[in-house]
Amino acid sequence: MNDVREPRSRRTRGTSWWRALPRWIPLPVGAGLGLLCGLGYGLAATPQYTATAYVLVVPQHGADPQTALGFAQAYGRIAAGPEVLAGAQTAAGAPAASLRGHVAAATSPDAPMISVTGTSDAGGQAARIADAVANSLTASGNRTSEATGVRLLLFSPAAAPAGPSSPSATLSAAVGASAGGLLGGLALLARRRPEDGYDGHDPYDPRNAAVPSPSPSHEHPRAAV
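Given the sequence above, the corresponding structure tokens read:
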């Protein structure tokens, strides 16, 4: 019987220090750790700047406006393609391979407009990338304007942003503290005590199963010699 109860006693001694702490301790600990992690990330991460240029697709020779809308969707898909980036690398001051990760294009389902967004660790370079890609896309699309019936126009050039678009250290710290506090609250809910109606006894643990003792009715008397 001793070898059955000994593992449970060791487990109880191992968790006694945790149960001795105040019940609310996971909440401030989680919030504090999250605050430190978020603040560290905000201070270590390089600020990122974004700038956006807009390209307009215009129908030509009395073409249907829906045609321009359809070509806007098509040109938006190739805005970050190899041909467009190759034509933009000189104006952007960066090779086409590195521009791929710093350019994003989006279209609207209601207007024949393409937005080209450049990202960099400097505001001026972000605007330079966006303008270079937008001009390259415009030139690439206009080379086939006779066949497509539409022309591309640089509707609005990109402007250098005044501030970074990435989260600041203060915001990162606040997000980290919120996430840590949430995890601490979940740990607080999971941390139950005997006064909550739980005595640490797991009825499904085979080590806690009761060992039945032999019944006297099953014993057979020895035959008299």
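The radius of gyration is 34 Å. Try to locate this feature in the token string yourself.
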